Amino acid sequence: MAREPKSYVKTAVIFNIVHGSFVDGYGVRTTIFLKGCPLKCSWCCNPEGQKLFHEIKFMASKCDGCGRCIDICHAHAIVSLSENSENKIRIDRNLCDRCGECRSLCYSGALDYFGKEMTVDEAFDVLKKDERYYSSSGGGVSIGGGEPTFQPEFTYSLMKKCQEHLIHVAIDTCGYTNSELGFRILEEADQLLYDLKGVDSERHKKNTGASNALILDNLKKLAAMGKPIIIRMPLVPGCNDSEKDIREAAEFIAGMRSVQRVDLLPYHRFGTIKYDQLGNVYELPELQTHAQEFIDRVLSVFCSLGLKVQIGG
Question: Contact, 146 vs 35, CB < 8 A?
């Protein structure tokens, strides 16, 4: 008999909670996004979810150049830029200790946090408010990120608390976990939304900074257990969208009987503004979205193998 883990009461840093989602599993769902991820996808649309800790967000369009943040910054991380500059200030992220004093004095709202620390009980109280929508639609709670198994104690505790209250839990995961508790989360979730960035190992490492060997191995193990799985596959021009990439991914997925559906996620640029807000550079500035003709060809490949497919989550 499996040993029950101890009771976890850890906090986690949450960077978003989305109510009324239709794209994170079945039914109406509330999705909670945890910070921290072992991958660094070059196309990541949630760069604020990559690091475990909260970060200062700077929205240049709101900045009035008053200079109060410069005066109060004890780390001297904020400097004024010339009047000809598009931005009025610059934050040296290597010096910034994220104390938030600048944020407290920013009356224009140009400075804020990406991330807020929450306890399991605090998070559950927010999620439980939407319970009537879950029961009426066959929905529930989705826990994503970042990567939810990157903060396993919190994720496991929150998942179990939801399940104890008969709330369906989907885990949106990249599958890159080698910890006992991380894999246990995937085993005991009601539904898995499993991100598959590609099957080719070398391209995966180039695109995400990590090998996909663990990801594919975990996926095969979970499928063999009969876990209900929705595969989520981004289609990124020049990264994982060649004819060979598409065919290999479709054939790999087709061998897993517990895969209920494949969600193809066409590339978009909605998250690029967040890179500026974090003081980062977006690595793929020239990419454009695929034409519908290309999407239709990809659909036909997956459908020809008997897979249920839809565009978007």
Answer: yes
pLDDT of amino acid 4? 47
Please check whether residue 227 lies inside any domain of the structure.
yes
pLDDT at residue 84, rounded to an integer:
65
Asked if 143 and 281 sit in the same domain, the reply is: yes
Q: Quote the domain boundaries for residue 201.
A: 12-51+118-311
Q: Quote the pTM value.
A: 0.93
What is the model's pLDDT at position 8? 54
In a domain, residue 7? The reply is: no
The token pair at 217 is 């191995």
**How distant is the alpha carbon of residue 163 from its chain centre?**
22
Residues of the chain with pLDDT under 50: 1-6
* Residue 66 and residue 175 in one domain: no
**168/281 same-domain check:** yes
- Total domain count for the chain? 2
123 and 249 share a domain?
yes
- Please report where in the chains the tokens 């780390």 appear, as a residue: 75
Shared-domain flag, residues 109 and 227:
no
